[in-house]
Amino acid sequence: MRVRALLIVVAAALVAIGPVPTRAGAAALLDAAAGLAPWITSVRRELHKIPELIFEEHKTSAALKKHLDDLKIPYKQYAKTGIVGRVGSGQPTVVLRSDIDALPINEPEGLEFKSQHEGRMHACGHDGGSCAAAQPRN
């Protein structure tokens, strides 16, 4: 269900960037976004495994930069672990913001992508927001 919500947010952002689509265009946009679900799920699980506390997100930042590099999206690093990527230019400007820090709590057992850092967990959805903000664009 989280992936579907993320896809809707991504589709809404893409619609905001371009002209208002027709019903068929909107359906095609949602279909294209749905095609990203496996990739988004994979990245979310990757990030979920490596939760880091605020100002300690070095592995998370490195993982996101690798994905941005793979997507050929230019970015700048700020404040040691912050990243700002830029896609396109001109108006209107759409900003996608995502927190990447985790919480200092233990994760329950049972997930195949459970936290690899004892006492830290992405329990607040930041892993999902981060992968949506870094999703591939054609």
From TrEMBL:
<dbReference type="InterPro" id="IPR017439">
    <property type="entry name" value="Amidohydrolase"/>
</dbReference>
<keyword id="KW-0732">Signal</keyword>
<dbReference type="GO" id="GO:0016787">
    <property type="term" value="F:hydrolase activity"/>
</dbReference>
<feature type="signal peptide">
    <location>
        <begin position="1"/>
        <end position="24"/>
    </location>
</feature>
<keyword id="KW-0378">Hydrolase</keyword>
<protein>
    <submittedName>
        <fullName>IAA-amino acid hydrolase ILR1-like 3</fullName>
        <ecNumber>3.5.1.-</ecNumber>
    </submittedName>
</protein>
<dbReference type="InterPro" id="IPR002933">
    <property type="entry name" value="Peptidase_M20"/>
</dbReference>
<dbReference type="Pfam" id="PF01546">
    <property type="entry name" value="Peptidase_M20"/>
</dbReference>
